[in-house]
Design brief:
Layout: H1 3-13, H2 25-36, E1 41-43, E2 46-49, E3 53-56, E4 60-66, E5 76-83, E6 90-95, E7 104-109, E8 115-123, E9 128-139
Parallel strand pairs: 1-9, 3-9
Antiparallel strand pairs: 2-4, 4-7, 5-6, 5-8, 8-9
């Protein structure tokens, strides 16, 4: 038994909540509901760029941009990244203000498998906008046990 298998077994035996190594779309849907509540999410204004083929899911480069003038009255409050195939689908949230200048984020994330990734922008007027992209991951992250 390796160290990871031992730690996982100890966590399960201690009663800590467990999760699948790979996430489910239902988990991602719940994560989105926690972000937006009962509001509608419109398509558009958000562009998510992820490579269509990723060799290793441990380091996936992504770029999100949101069409917004970023003025005091019209700006992006937050950008949330949700990955449907990850065990914890709400990957990261970025909080912005009108002083951010541009609503553009570039980062690296981990992906547990080939999946669709969503970027949800929360605007200052309370609206939500979404963009998504799918990627094929050849070596999955998050599934190592």
């Amino acid at each position: 038994m390796n160290r990871r298998a031992f730690v996982f077994s100890a966590a399960v035996a201690s009663g800590l909540p467990s999760f699948n190594a790979l996430g489910e779309v239902a988990d991602a849907t719940q994560a989105v509901e926690k972000i937006v509540g009962n509001k509608n999410v419109s398509r558009g204004r958000v562009t998510l760029v992820i490579p269509p083929l990723v060799e290793n899911g441990n380091l996936v480069t992504m770029k999100v941009s949101v069409e917004s003038p970023m003025t005091k009255t019209d700006y992006v409050q937050a950008i949330h990244i949700v990955a449907e195939g990850n065990p914890l689908p709400n990957v990261v949230s970025f909080y912005l203000s009108s002083r951010s200048g541009r609503a553009v984020i570039t980062t690296r994330i981990r992906l547990g498998d080939s999946q669709r990734v969503r970027a949800i922008a929360h605007m200052s007027d309370g609206s939500f906008w979404q963009g998504d992209a799918s990627t094929l991951v050849t070596i999955a992250a998050c599934a190592e046990v």
